[in-house]
Design goal:
Distance between the termini: 37 Å
Number of domains: 3
Helix content: 10-25%
Shape: globular
Bound molecules: calcium ion
CATH topology of the largest domain: Immunoglobulin-like
Order of helices and strands: HEEEEEEEEEEEEEEEEEEEHHHHH
Number of helices: 6
Structural class: alpha+beta
CATH class of the largest domain: Mainly Beta
CATH architecture of the largest domain: Sandwich
């Protein structure tokens, strides 16, 4: 597909999403994929609030789920592409979701479709066999049978768009304060250098606030009146490709809270899994309430969340596969955007040294600080890549493309200190200091060397 037409199509779809959602705003502190998806309005969703309204037929009141398959990606020819649909959610909580992936365009002559994984699971993978562009579509359907708008991801062998992160929303306590913005967690998946373009898209009436330097990583402005300021960030890579915009809100009114469903885990089937929502927060320090849902689980699983209204719920996976709990927190007035975590449960009899090494790598990654990453959301992005490798390995055993995935796309995100000269994080690393790389990299090297012996 012609690239210009493709982007026009994506833009139109996004516009439709925006209109459909009543003007979404993506929160800065949500996962990276939120940069490409439209989250619903922060107003609490009360579909049945007015039973006297003419449109009171309950069949018309189910809100459609929102598909999210993450940001566009770049891979090398013969590389394995892993797409993550677990950021999809349903605004009115009709879980579990079902997933339908489709490769809708490839370079001519490509046999990528024949390498695709099960198209009804929450993650999807295939091997890129020819240079060019691949368009993949995800549609999710809620438990009442309502389908989302399609979400398109472009996978190419050339250049990926960068990801803008405009930082966390901020509370404004009084006027005439200098507010500092933080775009430092923006990044480019290819490691390309990026430039910044900030703009104030809305401010209180009579405010004459202006950014001191709209091209800085950390610009400031003086909030000269109380009210709500919305500032947008777009980053551009050195090949001229723009990110989707990300927004940050600075407000003297109530700011919606941020949910954090915790780190991805690999566990054993039958073992109790403890979830941790304690990373959730509210910039106004409002007390939070918690609402967890199992957004997806393996077909046939009967597990339920215990303590779904608490900070630390648990559940017992009963079938091997990926479980995706979803957390929304509320500050008494506003819901957060949803946050997801992926738990991969493995049958104990399947555990071998390779899986054990990768489980150790995930534990080590979860032990790092947010500040060890180029973007805090890349902790879960990285552990999910490992989980999908494990899942493919358990299905199909050794493959060259899984080995490449481990070497290039996973170990490659933390190898600058081990193989670089000078020894320092390199341009495409996601783990940004040598002590943190040293905690994780050896586990991956161990897994890779075990895997190589299986070839
Ligand atoms: Ca729904
Ligand atoms: Ca790029
Ligand atoms: Ca609040
Ligand atoms: Ca690297």
């Amino acid at each position: 597909m012609n690239k210009a037409i493709f982007y026009l199509l994506v833009s139109s779809l996004l516009l439709i999403f925006f209109i459909g959602c009543g003007g979404g705003s993506s929160d800065s502190a949500t996962n990276t994929s939120s940069n490409t998806s439209i989250t619903p309005d922060s107003d609490p969703i009360t579909p049945n609030s007015d039973p006297t309204a003419p449109d009171s037929d309950p069949t018309n009141q189910n809100l459609a789920p929102v598909a999210n398959a993450g940001a566009d990606q770049t891979v090398k020819v013969d590389g394995l592409v892993i797409l993550d649909g677990t950021g999809s959610y349903d605004p009115d909580g009709n879980y579990p979701l079902t997933y339908a992936w489709e490769i809708i365009s490839t370079p001519s002559g490509s046999t990528a479709i024949s390498s695709a994984s099960d198209s009804s699971e929450s993650t999807f993978s295939f091997t890129v066999d020819l240079p060019g562009e691949y368009t993949i579509q995800l549609v999710v359907t809620d438990s009442l049978g309502t389908a989302s708008e399609p979400y398109l991801v472009l996978v190419s062998t050339s250049n990926s768009m960068p990801v803008a992160d405009a930082g966390s929303n901020q509370a404004l306590s009084k006027e005439d304060i200098t507010v500092q913005l933080d775009g430092s967690q923006s990044f480019d998946p290819d490691g390309d250098p990026i430039t910044y373009a900030w703009s104030i898209t809305s401010k209180p009436p009579f405010s004459s606030a202006a950014l001191n330097d709209p091209t800085a990583v950390n610009p400031t402005f003086v909030a000269d009146s109380l009210g709500t300021y919305v500032i947008e960030l777009i980053v551009t890579d050195n090949q001229g490709l723009d990110s989707f915009p990300d927004e940050v809100v600075v407000s003297s009114e109530n700011v919606k809270p941020v949910a954090d469903a915790g780190g991805n885990q690999v566990v054993l089937v039958g073992e109790t899994v403890f979830l941790d929502g304690s990373g959730s927060y509210d910039v106004n320090l409002d007390p939070l309430t918690y609402s967890w849902n199992m957004a997806s689980k393996p077909k046939g699983s009967l597990t339920v969340l215990i303590g779904a209204e608490t900070e630390y719920p648990n559940f017992e996976p009963d079938i091997q596969g990926i479980y995706t709990p979803n957390l929304v927190v509320n500050d008494g007035f506003l819901d957060s955007d949803p946050s997801n975590v992926n738990i991969f449960a493995v049958d104990a009899e399947n555990i071998d040294d390779f899986i054990r090494a990768l489980m150790d790598a995930i534990l080590a990654i979860n032990g790092l600080d947010d500040s060890d990453f180029n973007n805090a959301n890349n902790r879960n992005a990285l552990t999910l890549k490992i989980i999908v490798v494990l899942k493919n390995y358990l299905q199909d055993g050794y493959s060259e493309s899984l080995l490449d995935k481990l070497r290039d796309d996973i170990a490659g995100k933390m190898d600058g200190c081990a193989i670089g000269d000078p020894s320092a994080p390199d341009q495409n690393d996601w783990i940004m200091n040598c002590p943190a790389q040293a905690d994780v990299y050896p586990h991956l090297m161990e897994a890779i060397s075990i895997f190589e012996t299986m070839s």
